[in-house]
Amino acid sequence: MNSAPDDVEDAPGDSRIKPSEIVGFDPAAYVLTPGQPTFGIRGAWNYGYSGGMSRYEALYLFSATGNHLSRVLAAPMSAFRMTAGNWHKDGTREHIVTESANLLIVLPSRTYGHADILLKSRRGKWQHVFRWRDADAGYR
Prior knowledge:
This protein is mostly beta strands. It contains no helices and 9 strands. Helices cover 0% and strands 62% of the residues. The strands form 2 sheets. Strands 1-2-3-4-5-6-7 form a 7-stranded antiparallel sheet, with no helix packed on it. A hairpin with a 5-residue loop joins strand 6 and strand 7. The chain is elongated.
């Protein structure tokens, strides 16, 4: 799940992976720093391939500083994969479905004045803490 596509900033040229659709605004109230407005937008990708398909969703957090808006985080939020399996004697086909989802939590701890962010699996034990990096003006 943690390998779902996101906008890769250091990719050469314009080869960055971008969402194929904007799902909408995320209604959660993100308070990362006092007095700095932050909002989320959900993006999605759909991939079709021989014998299956997949869909990924990511959350992008944007913060406003003065009259400048910048993306401060891109996090994978869900993945759905359906892959064709073996053929049955009646002509139908087995399908293998894999789903995963993450939960984003704004933590009370802070790094350089910005709240730390926990991204964790809803079903498993995987988790990652994003911390603010001044050099990147965003979370890593």
